[in-house]
Design goal:
Largest sheet: 6 strands, mixed
CATH class of the largest domain: Alpha Beta
Distance between the termini: 20 Å
CATH superfamily of the largest domain: Ribosomal protein L4/L1
Family: Belongs to the universal ribosomal protein uL4 family.
Protein name: Large ribosomal subunit protein uL4
Number of helices: 7
Helix content: 25-40%
Strand content: 5-15%
Structural class: alpha/beta
Number of strands: 6
Shape: elongated
CATH architecture of the largest domain: 3-Layer(aba) Sandwich
Organism: Mariniradius saccharolyticus AK6
CATH topology of the largest domain: Ribosomal Protein L4, Chain: A
Strand order of the largest sheet: 2-1-3-6-4-5
Order of helices and strands: EEHHHEHEHEHEH
Pfam families: Ribosomal_L4
Keywords: Ribonucleoprotein, Ribosomal protein, RNA-binding, rRNA-binding
């Protein structure tokens, strides 16, 4: 499978890059994608939710009325959950929502997400991306040259580039990551995936292990 390589300004270089069918051309596994996205979202949860149960409520432990003869139900404590201001029954407690997935399954999910992007013609390969200085205007000009200004985009760089990252940071519909940070959620969440030419080989190496 071959894709044209474009310059940063949107011009065609006349060259093509060959994509591995084992990475970009497999039959997508939807269940693997589901599990990987579920794990990613679960790991984002803080898990710091907490409500007080009756043993944690500040209040009197005095029996609030006599046991019998009132015509109403028994009541032993103002901290009981059926009274206003009482403790909550089986309330949320701090917990870790993350869970483990096998590496092979995660690699399958990412290969599946990349294959979906190729099938949808949502994958673009750039020769390279670089700016002389951090400038959002330069980044917006690049998006306009690539006809991606109105789309949610994910740029995958082969290595850290501070100028590119800082130039994109204020824009809500674009994200810049490196190859080692690629995840299934980001791949599927973007309308268009932009890979630098140097990222292709690194991705193929990373996902073929």
């Amino acid at each position: 499978m071959e894709l044209a390589v474009f310059k940063q300004n949107g011009e065609d270089t006349g060259r093509k890059v060959t994509l591995s069918d084992d990475i970009f051309g497999i039959e997508p596994n939807d269940h693997a994608i589901y599990l990987d996205v579920k794990q990613y979202l679960a790991a984002q949860r803080q898990g710091t939710h907490k409500s007080k149960e009756r043993n944690e409520i500040a209040g009197s432990t005095k029996k609030i009325k006599k046991q019998k003869g009132t015509g109403g139900a028994r009541a032993g404590s103002i901290k009981a959950p059926n009274f206003r201001g009482g403790g909550r029954v089986f309330g949320p407690r701090p917990r870790d929502y993350s869970f483990k997935l096998n590496k092979k399954l995660k690699r399958l999910a990412r290969r599946s997400a990349l294959s979906y992007k190729v099938k949808e013609n949502s994958l673009l390969v750039l020769e390279s991306v670089s700016f002389d200085a951090p400038k959002t205007k330069s980044y917006i000009s690049m998006l306009q040259g690539l006809s991606l200004a109105d789309k949610k985009t994910l740029f995958v760089l082969p290595e850290n580039n501070k100028n590119v990252y800082l130039s994109s940071r204020n824009l809500p519909r674009t994200k810049v990551i490196t190859v080692d940070s690629v995840n299934t959620y980001d791949l599927l969440n973007a309308d268009s995936l932009v890979l630098c030419e140097g990222s292709v080989n690194k991705l193929e190496t990373l996902l073929s292990l």
